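Weekly sync, protein design subgroup
Attendees: M.S., D.O., the rotation student, P.L. (late)

Item 1: inverse folding check
M.S. brought a backbone from last month's batch and wanted to see whether the design step gives back something sensible before we order anything. D.O. pointed out we never logged the input encoding, so this time it goes straight into the notes. Structure tokens as presented (216 positions):
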């Protein structure tokens, strides 16, 4: 295998690497085959992976009425009523607001296709809508935004908004495997909640003991 990419479990991988480094530094008899040098992983061929969208809901409209927000969105791109809530192309979003679906096509002039991160739909959403219009500065920490895994479908966005739990739902076009690899090859960091990978492994309990017998 010439190269592999971490598709899920980045924090676990980094934690395992750091723990191994601390163990190596503290072990004057480090040999190289100790258990702390390894961690559990599974490899999938890229053509057998599927990325689903990571949709968004926001709890309020940042002081705007639905009509005012729609006017603002028309400045971002072409806004039109939608029959299908899920977008079918990059640069296109499904917006659920006031019990209606809209399709938003971002102005192509706003997209720098040479930027592996800035051209991602999750970046366009954050830079053009969430931050400037809805006041979501850092999606990692802002309690007003929540993420809905694509496996739950657009019906979950409707349920959240119709119940009053959120004010707006936004359906995303999924990040592609090629986009993820391009970002990684460029040494860049993907925005939070960019991908929902399938298949996912079945839940289970695995115990990996880091202590191993002394080498003979």
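Designed sequence read out in the meeting:
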């Amino acid at each position: 295998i010439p190269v592999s990419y971490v598709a899920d479990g980045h924090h676990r991988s980094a934690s395992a690497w750091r723990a191994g480094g601390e163990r190596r530094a503290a072990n004057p008899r480090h040999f190289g085959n100790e258990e702390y040098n390894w961690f559990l992983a599974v490899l999938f061929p890229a053509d057998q992976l599927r990325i689903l969208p990571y949709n968004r809901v926001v709890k309020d409209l940042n002081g705007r009425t639905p009509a005012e927000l729609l006017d603002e969105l028309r400045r971002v791109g072409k806004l039109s009523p939608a029959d299908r809530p899920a977008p079918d192309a990059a640069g296109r979003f499904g917006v659920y607001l006031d019990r209606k679906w809209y399709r938003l096509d971002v102005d192509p002039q706003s997209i720098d296709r040479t930027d592996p991160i800035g051209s991602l739909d999750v970046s366009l959403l954050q830079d053009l809508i969430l931050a400037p219009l809805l006041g979501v500065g850092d999606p990692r920490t802002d309690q007003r935004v929540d993420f809905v895994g694509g496996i739950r479908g657009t019906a979950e966005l409707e349920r959240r908004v119709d119940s009053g739990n959120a004010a707006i739902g936004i359906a995303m076009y999924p990040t592609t495997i090629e986009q993820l690899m391009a970002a990684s090859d460029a040494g860049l960091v993907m925005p939070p909640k960019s991908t929902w990978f399938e298949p996912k492994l079945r839940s289970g309990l695995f115990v990996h003991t880091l202590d191993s017998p002394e080498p003979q």
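Discussion: Helices lie at 10-26, 66-76, 121-130, 153-162, 177-185. The CA atoms of residues 85 and 155 lie 9 Å apart.
Action: P.L. to compare against the previous round before Friday.
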